[in-house]
Prior knowledge:
The complex is a heterodimer of chains A (565) and B (160).
Chain A: E1 5-8, H1 9-19, E2 24-27, H2 34-39, E3 46-49, H3 53-67, E4 71-75, H4 79-93, E5 98-104, H5 120-124, E6 130-132, H6 140-152, E7 158-164, H7 165-169, E8 171-174, H8 193-205, E9 209-213, H9 215-219, H10 223-233, E10 237-239, E11 254-257, H11 264-272, E12 275-279, H12 285-288, H13 291-297, E13 299-304, E14 318-321, H14 324-337, H15 347-362, H16 372-382, E15 388-391, H17 395-403, E16 412-413, H18 424-434, E17 440-445, H19 446-452, H20 455-461, E18 467-472, H21 477-486, H22 502-508, E19 512-515, H23 519-531, E20 536-541, E21 551-552, E22 561-562
Parallel strand pairs in A: 2-3, 2-4, 4-5, 5-7, 6-7, 9-10, 9-12, 10-11, 12-13, 13-14, 15-16, 15-17, 17-18, 18-20, 19-20
Antiparallel strand pairs in A: 1-8, 21-22
Helix pairs in contact in A: 1-6, 3-4, 3-18, 8-14, 10-14, 11-15, 16-17, 16-23
Chain B: E1 2-10, H1 15-25, E2 32-37, E3 43-51, H2 54-66, E4 70-76, E5 81-92, H3 96-108, E6 112-114, E7 120-127, H4 129-139, E8 144-156
Antiparallel strand pairs in B: 1-3, 1-4, 2-3, 5-7, 5-8, 6-7
The complex binds thiamine diphosphate (TPP) and magnesium ion.
Amino acid sequence: xxxxxxxxxxxxxxxxxxxxxxxxxxxxxxxxxxxxxxxxxxxxxxxxxxxxxxxxxxxxxxxxxxxxxxxxxxxxxxxxxxxxxxxxxxxxxxxxxxxxxxxxxxxxxxxxxxxxxxxxxxxxxxxxxxxxxxxxxxxxxxxxxxxxxxxxxxxxxxxxxxxxxxxxxxxxxxxxxxxxxxxxxxxxxxxxxxxxxxxxxxxxxxxxxxxxxxxxxxxxxxxxxxxxxxxxxxxxxxxxxxxxxxxxxxxxxxxxxxxxxxxxxxxxxxxxxxxxxxxxxxxxxxxxxxxxxxxxxxxxxxxxxxxxxxxxxxxxxxxxxxxxxxxxxxxxxxxxxxxxxxxxxxxxxxxxxxxxxxxxxxxxxxxxxxxxxxxxxxxxxxxxxxxxxxxxxxxxxxxxxxxxxxxxxxxxxxxxxxxxxxxxxxxxxxxxxxxxxxxxxxxxxxxxxxxxxxxxxxxxxxxxxxxxxxxxxxxxxxxxxxxxxxxxxxxxxxxxxxxxxxxxxxxxxxxxxxxxxxxxxxxxxxxxxxxxxxxxxxxxxxxxxxxxxxxxxxxxxxxxxxxxx
Amino acid sequence: xxxxxxxxxxxxxxxxxxxxxxxxxxxxxxxxxxxxxxxxxxxxxxxxxxxxxxxxxxxxxxxxxxxxxxxxxxxxxxxxxxxxxxxxxxxxxxxxxxxxxxxxxxxxxxxxxxxxxxxxxxxxxxxxxxxxxxxxxxxxxxxxxxxxxxxxxxxxxxxx
Lengths: 565, 160
Ligand SMILES: Cc1ncc(C[n+]2csc(CCOP(=O)(O)OP(=O)(O)O)c2C)c(N)n1
Ligand SMILES: [Mg+2]
């Protein structure tokens, strides 16, 4: 029996969050959430102030992806709430656990177009996993408990808790329940031995089987299981972009990400395979190109925790619904029991290895000293393998996918679903808060960094020393590449004119700014940043004309790659 | 292809909005919808008729099932289900004969006649959507002034 205590809604919120193990909240105050803010004076939860609520949401998202516990962000009503929407939608698109708490106008003002009233529940509905608006203080403990459970269980996602101001200030007898029931929510399925067994059979009978590891593999941290299955059945492994680094990219069976800017060898082998074990992926258009071309050739075994993903984009011959880690474990066990272990180099594996070696040798790279591949390989060389990477969105992101090999699984994070410019830096701050002892690097473009660069204030004042690694082409480069490729080089709205100066910008926030114009300078800059106890921006001028290649144009199939000429 | 979906939801505010929003956001169609409280006031039941190919309908059901507020989602088999829609037609009467003719028509479909005026009358019909459509076709030549439909209500037959 939990014992009842009288307290305000705001106090109950903080108490309930403490019970969930929350150590910090990213946010920005305003009129409608002041009662909650006042509680920071009386509890052990750290408040990390942001300069824009969107960044608070991205920080919570980065924290959530790394710690696999929901990160928490706070915003006030009206504009505070609408400012976090992009962050919530980004988390939803990438299935990241998050709790967003917004203040709302008092209950009796709702619907009156009150000052700073916005119907955030209505606006956020399509981009949250669930939303609550407690109408009485006594509801808060259970709402928080359910909210955390929903956010982190099954397929994770953001949960919004919108709390009217009077619900924050009203007192009630609070019962903090350990037990609760959500009737319509069944996040887990039992292990599906029958279908896993069928899957093994199908893989054994395929001539050219392959594994496609999606983001779900990382979310459920099924790294060891994935590796065991791949090695036991001698299956080459490609990933989606979100699944990048689910499997060590220096492993002989690894081919890297497929997709619009996938590795040439990965796209080639995906296009040749006759059977795929697809793990925790929704077969996004960015990954598979045209659905029809993908589906026709292939026998698909689809493992996913979300039953609604089965058959949504791609029909599967065998569906295994449930936590992919659990079902991969079943697979490993069955393989052991049946004493199945492939050792012979099949013609397919030989072909895969030759293709991989060919592209390692023959993919043409930028000839300059400061080409993207050289820069990112230098970063890889100098970073410890447990370092965490976040990225922004654009060419730099895709170069990171191509040229930065993830060696320790689960150390690479990007806004892959929504493609939110400005995500990487605040997410890096959240990641660093989750794992303060490892280096955290945001691989950034100049355009994206501009969108949330004011988080430098948070990095400096809250002492969160991350590294922002800006591949500065002074251009909205990815858009420029499309304009070069599809619009006859008409470059509209992409030039950044070297503005701002990122070194001075960093310095004005009290961070460290270093410009690296040669490999030598880059080497020193990275080493310097790694030993710095303040956030560092490394500004790396690059050729604005460098393209990301290979490139699978939208609406075409993976075998139709545009390659460097 | 048509499908009748029976959706049991928690009886809380905002759920009708979420269900209809899901149809819009995922590019599905709602042909008709009816909502009412069940014998247990904690739940209400929505009956939605929708159309799409097999794959789309499978997706609608899965997406509805995924919604945390839905307790049970069922695709009803037409052959094992009693389903009815209530419909009111206001029909124009142009000459003395029309009144009798429309009355006959209403009778043939088990309808009731209300609000008889010299130039119009109202027919209440409780029938399947197909029967309602057939009735509508036959009533058209008289002139249909207005229609109000409730959407389908459906229950699985016992032992089905
Ligand atoms: C918020 C947002 N607005 C617009 C876009 C469209 N977009 C995609 S990539 C890109 C350019 C990014 O520029 P930069 O960060 O400098 O990266 P680069 O491509 O130059 O490496 C733009 C504008 C987006 N993804 N997100
Ligand atoms: Mg750029």
